[in-house]
Amino acid sequence: MVPFRLVPLSGVPIAEQVAFAAKKAIFSRKLRPGDAFPSVRALARAMKIHANTAQKVIAQLAAEGLLEVLPGIGTVVARQAAPRSGRARLLAREVEQLAVQAMQIGASLEELQSAINECWRGLAGARSDRGAV
Amino acid sequence: MVPFRLVPLSGVPIAEQVAFAAKKAIFSRKLRPGDAFPSVRALARAMKIHANTAQKVIAQLAAEGLLEVLPGIGTVVARQAAPRSGRARLLAREVEQLAVQAMQIGASLEELQSAINECWRGLAGARSDRGAV
DNA sequence: CAGGTGTCACATGTGATATGGTACACGTAT
DNA sequence: ATACGTGTACCATATCACATGTGACACCTG
Fold first, then answer.
1. pLDDT tens track for A96-133
2. In which order are the strands placed within the sheet that holds A67-70?
3. Vertex B67, ends B14 and B5: CA angle to 5°?
């Protein structure tokens, strides 16, 4: 069974949602390096999406280095590549967007920091307990 | 002159980009409550976009309570409404997205916090120096 | 060989988006 | 009253991203 579900959210492409869910599963270690990733057609069936869309998801994750494709065999979760330098720069857009939105709803910097903390712990904290919800 | 520029970014709707730029200008106090906001046609001319698109921007910002429409007169920057309760919940999606992306590029929680801090200061820090770049 | 895997190439329909144009109700200034 | 600027509302059109649908190919394993 695939370790993530999908709620039809408006505005966000299905492929993006699935890819994001897969990322969460990987970073929270519900999927460990070396684990087999659902095949294109299996993923399509499980997520109720088209095989072509599922293929796009896998292709994107593979391009980002999160999955390793074994031609003719399947796809497995890759070990994380060494992070490149100047990585803080890549977050600028997202950080700015989050900051502005936080300001708009009247949140304080402390509240935002706390929300980040909580979320981070929620992801990184589910390390070796595989069956946990 | 409008206090924000626009760089044609792929994938993101123009109206969204303009609205976001306007939000930044408002929250960083480059536009203060009571200040006149560019008119639909002026904004369209300045941003090199269609009047219809500019109107969509203003309508969205007004719907979010950031602008106050004076019928027949124009649009001014509104005083921020009292923040509603349970506001941390509204950030969950964005926070989660940012956290996952930070993990992907190998950033630590501390680095992420620091990036947030810096960005927040950059926005809230430009309070009363109007002419600054 | 058959069956599974990832990959690619079309075509099709749908929805969002941006543009272009026109019109209206409102308020201000002349 | 007139002219002008304001936000707002339609309609039409073109474009693009997206998901779907279908088919085909190269690869590996049994």
1. 999 999 999 999 999 999 999 999 999 987 665 544 44
2. A36-37, A74-77, A67-70
3. 35
Question: Containing H/E element for B47?
Answer: helix B40-47
CATH entry 1.10.10.10 includes domain A14-77:
yes
C-alpha span between A103 and A132 (Å, rounded):
34
How many CA atoms within 13 Å lie on the side-chain side of A72?
0
- Length of chain A (residues): 133
Q: Any CB–CB contact under 8 A between B63 and chain A?
A: no
From the list B83, B93, B113, the residue with the least C-alpha distance to A114 is B113
Q: Give the C-alpha distances (Å, rounded to integers) separating A69 from A23, A27, A40, B46.
A: 16, 18, 11, 48
- The domains of chain B are located at 14-77, 87-124
Q: How far is the CA of B68 from the C1' of C27 (A)?
A: 16
Taking 50 as the pLDDT cut, the residues of chain B under it are: 130-133
Structure tokens at A71: 């031609």
In contact, A27 and B100? CB cutoff 8 Å: yes
Across the interface, do B102 and A91 touch by the CB < 8 Å criterion? Answer: yes
Taking the C-alpha atoms of residue B90 and residue B130, their distance in angstroms, rounded to an integer, is 31
Nearest chain B Cα distance for residue A43, angstroms? 21
